[in-house]
Design brief:
Chain A is mainly alpha-helical. Chain A has helices at residues 8-17, 19-31, 34-49, 58-69, 73-104, 112-121, 123-153, 159-190, 199-212, 214-241, 248-272. The two termini of chain A are 17 Å apart. Chain B has 14 helices and 31 strands. The chains are: A mainly alpha, B alpha+beta.
Chain lengths: 293, 680
């Protein structure tokens, strides 16, 4: 299974097939930050509604935000962090569920409840894998920071050389995220193999697989992640450029569309790394329900 | 028989005065030496032991009683004793707050000791010396000494003292001391307080948040340092000669009120000798703008060239051009707006990272800036710290160097005015893209945000040690005063304030202005009573707070109910809903601070009206009749009252925006949420 290449087209087909999962990812992604928005709206909504549409200096807006939000910042921070954590927990959950469903289910009909219940049952194993990714990103970035300090310690050396080093370090920081992400995506599928228990080993195997197939791995990631991030940024850019798109209706419509695209891309990306010859129509699960360890 | 030993007669004083007058007549618009009241002259010979970080010195001080009251004592500052133990007033104040982490450490305590003090000629005074604690009575504080004289120094008379002293520099925790081989030698010699006649000697203890106050005079200083070590100091170098394994430097400074120096081996610090050349370094746009603002011709704003000496750690050499650019821009801005820098040279020291606590400090003709080697690289290079600190400390050459206000009793007079000027200068630097690295354009906003978090009324005009916290004294002296002056600028107009500030500097150069002096000049130059500023903001801790309390619309039509017409009662017409609008606009003043404020009324058709509310009443109701509804009201629409931190109730809209300025929040949260995905 580990030698299978990621398949963008398989991801596309599977994401379409798993439209219920896409919808769930969309809904949850929208909901997780609602508490933070409610806190902010309750604290500052009325006062901000009375501000003129334009002409206020940045400093005054910042002052008003601090004045209004200052008293509720613990609640706001809690709500925002909770949203972030909820998104992380949920992503682990549906990753686990989709792997278990795709690897071990022989049924072709997709039932969201079944996927989620499978994910819930094995959530902790995939959470360990996700934590390994987080640790790897943290360690990698700490290394980049140490490199930054070493380079800047040699401030007296050529500025050009230092510039090259700094660009290299910035690239390394990005590379760390990409590698950890790809290792996590592959590892998530490897962790679904019968007999697999160690999330760390699955992540390491995922990393090895990524390093064996760097081009196809990165290409697949880019193909899905770029439209997902672009979709997330679209409402911000559109609202910034066109005031008409900031309104509640237009804004919600644009935000909703962007959220759907984003959800589809995330499911498609994840499914793209499924070992194509090992699962789905080509794999053993197509012969009937697999025996779950 | 001549005058008593140590007392110089009237004839010498007259001779000195004549010399002063001659020099001032011969000089440019800002005469260099001799213009102010020359009260004290120091001759100091000191040697540094770089291993033990100790100083051994001898000094001769001549003090002239320029007041109308006689005195039979001399008060001295022994600043380094503030670092002698954890029980000194300064260390106690530091320990009270988070600054308490700043301790010199086991072998890093500093002290100073007078080993001999006598009248010139030999009368020993050491037995008549005692320690004084005028501010807090702390028996463990030894930063102020009183020396009894055997006779009175009458008005116009002088006394000459001979001292010998030993001192050890502390490891740098605040302003002075050593870090490795770097030595910042400040507050190092026994220094006279200021005799104020009926008020006696003004000689405060050394406090954590306070700086200094001293008379103008001349300094002739000989420094002995290890051979080849670089030196940056107050004044102009006269000579440098090798003596054995050491170098002996002689420096001279005129019309200054302090002397500081820094030294380090050349392997640690390098020296950049450069200059300020007005034709090259004054941006043309600044010259035109200043001429227009001050109502003077460009020729009247001419600045003299001068030399600049920068001592910079070798690890920060890449930052030297940026520091020099900041110095030159600062000299141009301050010179154009407040008058030429009055000395021929300026020394700037950037302490090494280990001595960071010595950075950001002003001395006459010299200041320390501060930087990190990381400032050479993004993202830190995008910050404006280097320009901010450099311009600020340079500004002190005016507000404190030349206008030598009492930094202990009225710190706001120098720190606040310099902070205002620093922000104005940085605004121009950023707006004119003279420091393109800077990505953070916010200047006043930082002060406003900091002040908005203060819950207690912040009284500015009080001695620094009377503030509850060191942080509060900084907020009061720096941020609040700067914003108060910015507010004055907003209320009266930028040009008018600049002219008034220029007049203040012209009137009080080489003197010791007080808050009352500043008030008198500002009121005279602006033609306004500034009670709200000096009594309200600075002395009573008030801040402005206006609000739109309510806006109500109702139709003006026929009365409702029954009307008397044609000799009988009729039911009123239903036309009451079709007449013009009667609009009640209620504005309120939530603070005790009274001052005039602009109000903008924006009507449905887009018509805009500006009015001024004098703000005297607690609230006011304006009733208007109009065929259209009022769409928006803004109190202080230009944000002229920069001191006001509660701004959310200054605005009112007939139809509150459904989206508002936070339309982007949900989308931004979603975007930030993506950070969770790679980790999953």
């Amino acid at each position: 299974m580990t030698k299978a290449r990621p398949s963008w087209s398989f991801g596309l087909r599977t994401a379409a097939e798993l439209w219920r999962v896409v919808a769930a990812v969309f809904v949850v992604s929208e909901l997780v930050f609602v508490p933070a928005q409610i806190v902010l709206q309750a604290a500052a909504g009325e006062a901000l509604g009375h501000l003129p549409d334009d002409g206020l200096p940045v400093g005054e807006i910042a002052l008003i935000l601090v004045e209004q939000v200052g008293p509720v910042w613990p609640a706001l921070l809690t709500a925002a962090l909770s949203g972030w954590c909820a998104l992380w927990l949920w992503t682990v959950l549906w990753h686990a569920g989709v792997v278990r469903w795709l690897v071990f289910s022989g049924r072709r009909d997709v039932r969201l409840a079944e996927i989620l219940s499978r994910g819930l049952l094995h959530w902790w194993r995939w959470a360990r894998l996700a934590l390994t990714s987080v640790a790897a990103i943290g360690l990698g970035h700490a290394g980049v920071w140490v490199g930054y300090r070493i380079v800047t310690d040699r401030a007296a050396t050529s500025e050009l050389l230092i510039g090259v080093w700094l660009v290299t370090l910035a690239g390394l920081a990005l590379l760390v995220v990409l590698l950890a992400w790809l290792a996590g995506l592959r590892g998530a599928w490897l962790l679904g193999e019968p007999g697999r228990r160690s999330a760390v080993l699955a992540w390491v195997d995922g990393l090895a697989g990524t390093l064996r197939q760097p081009v196809s791995s990165v290409l697949t990631l880019v193909l899905w992640a770029v439209p997902a991030v672009a979709a997330a940024a679209l409402p911000l850019i559109a609202g910034w450029r066109l005031e008409a798109l900031r309104g509640p209706l237009a804004g919600a419509a644009l935000g909703g569309l962007a959220g759907l695209i984003q959800a589809f891309c995330w499911v498609g990306l994840f499914a793209s790394f499924a070992p194509v010859r090992g699962v789905g129509r080509d794999g053993p699960s197509a012969q009937g329900p697999g025996r779950e360890p | 028989m001549g005058p008593p030993v140590g007392v110089v007669g009237y004839t010498r004083a007259v001779r000195a005065l004549v010399a002063v007058l001659l020099v001032s007549l011969a000089g440019p618009a800002w005469p260099a030496a001799g213009e102010g009241r020359r009260v004290v002259d120091y001759e100091i010979d000191v040697a540094l032991d770089p291993v033990r970080h100790e100083l051994r010195g001898a000094q001769r001080v001549r003090w002239r009683n320029t007041t109308g009251v006689a005195t039979s004592e001399i008060w001295l500052h022994l600043y380094l004793n503030a670092f002698a133990s954890s029980r000194s007033t300064m260390m106690t104040e530091l320990a009270r707050e988070s600054f308490g982490r700043r301790r010199p450490g086991d072998d890093g305590w500093g002290w100073t000791r007078i080993t001999r003090i006598a009248l010139a000629g030999g009368v020993d005074l050491i037995r008549g010396m005692s320690f004084e604690r005028p501010d807090d009575g702390n028996p463990d504080d030894f930063t102020v000494a009183r020396v009894a004289l055997p006779y009175e120094i009458r008005p116009g008379e002088s006394v000459e003292l001979e001292l010998e002293f030993e001192a050890r520099l502390p490891r740098v925790v605040l302003r002075t001391g050593y870090a490795g081989d770097f030595h910042m030698v400040a507050q190092w010699f026994p220094k006279l307080g200021v005799f104020e006649g009926e008020r006696g000697w003004n000689c405060h203890q050394y406090h954590a948040a306070s700086e200094f106050y001293a008379d103008f005079g001349s300094y002739n200083v000989a420094l002995t340092v290890p051979r080849g070590w670089v030196v940056g100091a107050t004044g102009e170098p006269v000579s440098r000669q090798p003596v054995g394994s050491e170098d002996r430097l002689v420096l001279r400074a005129r019309e200054v009120h302090d002397f500081a120096w820094a030294t380090a081996p050349p392997s640690l610090m390098s020296v950049v000798e450069t200059d300020f050349e007005p034709g090259r370094d004054i941006p043309r746009i600044w010259l035109d703008r200043a001429a227009a603002a001050l109502g003077r011709g460009a020729g009247e704003l001419e600045l003299p060239p001068m030399s600049i000496r920068l001592l910079v750690p070798r690890s920060q050499e890449a930052l030297a051009p940026r520091m020099i650019r900041a110095v030159r821009l600062g000299l141009a801005w301050f010179g154009l707006h407040l008058g030429p820098y009055p000395y021929p040279q300026l020394t700037v020291v950037s302490p090494p990272p280990e001595a960071r606590a010595a950075g950001g400090m002003e001395y006459p003709t010299m200041f320390t800036t501060g930087a990190s080697r990381l400032d050479a690289f993004p993202p830190r290079s995008w910050r404006r710290d280097i320009e901010s600190v450099t311009v600020h400390e340079l500004g002190h050459q005016y507000f404190q160097g030349v206008l030598a206000s009492n930094e202990v009793e009225q710190a706001w007079l120098d720190e606040g005015l310099v902070s205002w000027a620093e922000n104005r200068c940085l605004d121009d630097i950023i707006a004119d893209r003279l420091a393109p690295e800077i990505r953070n354009p916010l200047t006043w906003e930082t002060d406003q945000l900091l002040l908005s978090r203060v819950e207690q009324p912040l009284v500015v005009d009080r001695p620094v040690w009377e503030h509850r916290l060191i942080a509060e004294s900084y907020l009061a002296s720096y941020d609040k005063t700067a914003l108060a002056i910015r507010t004055l600028e907003g209320v009266l107009g930028e040009d008018r304030l600049l002219r008034a500030m220029r007049a203040y500097v012209d009137d009080f150069r080489f003197r010791h202005p007080t808050g009352d002096d500043l008030r008198a000049v500002l009121e005279r130059e602006t033609g306004h009573q500034l009670t709200w500023l000096f009594d309200g903001v600075l002395r009573n801790g008030l801040t402005p707070d206006w609000a739109v309390l309510a806006v109500r619309h109702r139709r003006v039509g026929e009365p409702e109910g029954m009307v008397w017409r044609d000799g009988r009662w009729h039911e009123a017409d239903e036309r009451g809903e079709t007449g013009p609008w009667r609009v009640d606009i209620e504005l309120g003043r939530r603070s005790e601070l009274v001052g005039p404020v602009e109000v903008e009324l924006r009507w449905e058709s887009g018509r805009v009206e500006r009015r001024t509310w004098d703000g005297r009443a607690r609230w006011v109701r304006w009733t208007e009749e109009s065929s259209e509804r009022l769409a928006q009201v803004a109190v202080d629409p230009d944000f002229a009252w920069a001191l006001e931190s509660r701004r959310s109730d200054n605005h009112w809209r007939d139809e509150p925006a459904k989206t508002g300025p936070l339309w982007w929040l949900g989308d931004a949260l979603r975007l930030i949420g993506l950070v969770a995905v790679p980790g999953s």
